[in-house]
Amino acid sequence: MRVELDDLGHRFPGAPPLFEHVSHVLEPGEVYSLTGPSGSGKSTLLAILAGWIRPASGTVRRIDVTDVGWVFQNPFGVPGRTAVDHVALAFLARGESVTAADEAARAALERFGLGSSADKPFRSLSGGEAQRLMLARGLAAEPDLLLVDEPTAQLDARTATDVNDALLAASSPTTIVVVATHDTRTRDACTRHIDLGLAASVRRAPLAERPESA
Ligand SMILES: Nc1ncnc2c1ncn2[C@@H]1O[C@H](COP(=O)(O)OP(=O)(O)OP(=O)(O)O)[C@@H](O)[C@H]1O
């Protein structure tokens, strides 16, 4: 399973190019950071990876990638349901028994440092706990590709650290994980890096300043 980006570029009609010449092979077991300044096209590239937007140039080949999961910057859950219920649902949906789903969900929560919060209702979780719960749930569903958009955008620095630490736990042999972020610490928590800012600065620099013409 993998996703191949070949000379990918995108622009919306009537607007200048967002990014160009992005080539990468994305594989399971890695957590890819997707960085770049605001407006450089990080969320757009996630949507292209998901197949929601057709790129203006280049190609995306999704090889054996069927299920795509998302984790958004605002954790969204059912206020009165427990943390463990949120994750168990992913296992129940795959046909596990209630007992097995509960056990698997508790193990997943442990992995994200949420073992002691398993029986707390979603509404009583802190912002960082809720975001780690979203990561645990996202991975529990075992998507082929998990797209994570700005997971620390709404968090203070200390809480963001907990989420960044959890990203290491998000590495999975069966899932390709891609994390769009502004946060350099989130970037550093990932195992591979794609920088749209670099692509943009090469594109925007006058010809004489471009590295390839130096
Ligand atoms: N459907 C669309 N039609 C036209 N323009 C769009 C569309 N979606 C996004 N844009 C524009 O494309 C640019 C890139 O947006 P995008 O959200 O991908 O950037 P980003 O790097 O994720 O930004 P941020 O870090 O601020 O979230 C922005 O200027 C945005 O307004």
TrEMBL record:
A Pfam family reported for this protein in Swiss-Prot or TrEMBL: ABC_tran
InterPro entries assigned: AAA+_ATPase, ABC_transporter-like_ATP-bd, ABC_transporter-like_CS, ABC_transporter_ATP-bind, P-loop_NTPase
Domain ABC transporter: 3-214
Gene3D superfamilies in alphabetical order: P-loop containing nucleotide triphosphate hydrolases
Protein name: ATP-binding cassette domain-containing protein
The UniProt record lists the keyword ATP-binding: yes
Keyword Transport tagged: yes
MF terms in GO: ATP binding; ATP hydrolysis activity
Key words of the record: ATP-binding, Lipoprotein, Nucleotide-binding, Transport
